[in-house]
Structures are given as C-alpha cells and as structure tokens.
Design a protein that fits this description.
Elements: E1 2-7, H1 11-24, E2 28-34, H2 37-47, E3 51-54, H3 63-69, E4 76-81, H4 87-92, E5 97-100, H5 105-136, E6 146-149, E7 154-157, E8 162-168, E9 171-176, E10 181-184, H6 189-195, E11 200-204, E12 207-210, E13 214-218, E14 224-227, E15 232-234, H7 240-246
Helix pairs in contact: 2-3
Amino acid sequence: MINAIIVDDEINNITNLRQLLQLHCPEVNIVATASDANEGRELLLKHRPHLLFLDIQMPGENGFDLLKSLPDYEFEIIFVTAYDRYGIQAVKFSAIDYLLKPVNTQELVHAVNRVLTIQNRKKQNLQLENLIALLQQQQDKEEHRIALPTAKETRFIKPSQVVRCESSNNYTTFYLSDGEKILVSKPIYEFEELLQDYGFIRSHQSHLVNKKYIRSWVKEDGGYLLLEDKTQVPVSKQKRDMIKESFKH
C-alpha cells in the first residue's frame, strides 16, 4: 500500500479520481484531500505521503507554487490537469507522470504502477544500506538496526529500542521504549534467532523480551517477568530452565 493525497480545487474531480483509484488501483490509500494549495501544504507536512495527485491550475496559488513553497518533499508526483500547456513545466518538476482530465483509466493505472516500482526500489535501497551498515559495524551492536516491514513502510529500529515482542497468529507487535507499537505481518519465531544476540529471550510461545528491560522474575501465579514499565510477561513451564540459565550470562 502507498499513501496518497489529492489536491484539486474541484470537488467532483477529487471524487472521480478517488473512485477510479478504488476501482483500478487498490494499492493506493487516499489519506487526505485538499481543495487549495494552502490546505494541501498542511496535509503534506502532516501525513508525509508516498504520492501526491496534484492539480496545477487552481485559484490563488497553483500547483507549482505549492511545490516551490515546500522545504523538501520525498513523495512522487502525478500532475492531473486539464491544461496540456503545463506539460513541459511538469517534466521539469520531475513528475512521475502527467495526466490530462478527464483521466484515462489505463494511463492512471500505468502511472500508479510506475510509482509502486519506484517505492519498491527505494525500500530495497534502504534495506541494502542497512545491510552494508551492519557489515561495517559488526563490532558495534548498539548501532545495528533491524528492518520491520509494516503496511505503510519499512521501519529501521535499533534492537536496544525494543522492550518486547508479542505475537498473535502470524503477526508480531513490537513494543518500543518510547511507547510506540509497530505491527509486523510476520510470526515471532522469525525474530527470535535474529534478536537472541542482542539480549532477547523467548519466555513464552507468544513473547520475546529484551533482558535489559526486565525488573524481576516473579515466581508466583505460574511465574512471569515484571518489566520496568510494570508489564507482566508470562513464563511457560518449558522456558523456565532456559530463562534461569540466561540470567547467569
């Protein structure tokens, strides 16, 4: 999925484009729409989308004025306009594509597919950069990061930031030290071996815990690990000896 914003001064154009995307480009999630450049600017800074569908000719500030006013932008752009004479300027702004109104469905699908290709390439480049960093920093585990692919993006997190992981079917939730939660569509066993060299222990079939955040091992009520944030993590009978041994190191 890629998150997108539509900026167009005509509501019916927004409605039409949204419907076309829902029918033919289900990979695109419209997170917000705006009817002028000022509102669009605020939404872009707030949502940080992957893709912007931008009308050019609008009252007051036009689409190019909007882009010029942004401090930076990492999103791709598909210009959607009724005026062909803006084509050269659109190319100068490195738009991924340029669609004339009324929007042709086939051209829209082609443009979105190009965006998906670019987004996948960016994700792969980030993963490669992380791999190279790991190879260069084998001795400095504090700087290592693990890749957590979510529905919206791939997050790169230091293992030291992770307090614990909890699984539910084929999903794993990462609980970070700042209170953030990240849901990953992978089972917990895929992370057990990856994190064991960073002080993580599997206390239960559904729980993986960072030892640095454990306050105590409470042996009553069947046994559980009490974390620094007062969270209680269960300890299964099969894991008790292993956990006892892990605290000796």
